[in-house]
UniProtKB/TrEMBL annotation:
UniProt keyword Kinase, yes or no: yes
Family matches, as CDD domains: HATPase_RsbW-like (cd16936)
Keywords noted in UniProt: Kinase, Serine/threonine-protein kinase, Transferase
The protein's name in its UniProt record: Histidine kinase/HSP90-like ATPase domain-containing protein
Example GO molecular function: protein serine/threonine kinase activity
Keyword Transferase in record: yes
The species this protein was found in: Streptomyces alboflavus
Top-level taxon in the UniProt lineage: Bacteria
């Protein structure tokens, strides 16, 4: 779905597309593992970049775990924060919306 959205919106920069796909994957995986599942997924594009919003029924905010190479997992939010302008949480009835914006690549980065 994310690939189709980006193709329809004209996203042709491979690195930017890959970054968006990582963010979608990590936010959806976190909702499935820690927040009782995904209740919605929304992608939107604007001048700043592409925003990924994942709705879930969880009652706890996402946690960024300390990096520990001896522990499997726990790297997802570190990846998302590195690829985006930051992770935001909006509380809503029945859960929350976790979203992040992958910025447009600058002209010299394409």
């Amino acid at each position: 779905m994310a690939r189709d959205f980006m193709a329809a919106a004209g996203y042709d920069d491979e690195r930017h597309r890959d970054a968006v796909l990582v963010v979608v994957s990590e936010l959806v995986t976190n909702a499935l593992r820690h927040a009782r599942g995904v209740t919605g997924l929304r992608l939107s594009h604007h001048d700043r970049g592409l925003t990924v919003s994942v709705h879930d029924a969880g009652t706890r905010p996402p946690r960024t775990l300390p990096l520990d190479p001896g522990r499997p997992g726990g790297f997802g939010l570190h990846l998302v924060r590195g690829l985006t302008e930051g992770v935001r949480v909006e509380w809503r009835p029945g859960g929350k919306n976790v979203w992040a914006t992958v910025p447009q690549p600058r002209a010299g980065e394409r």
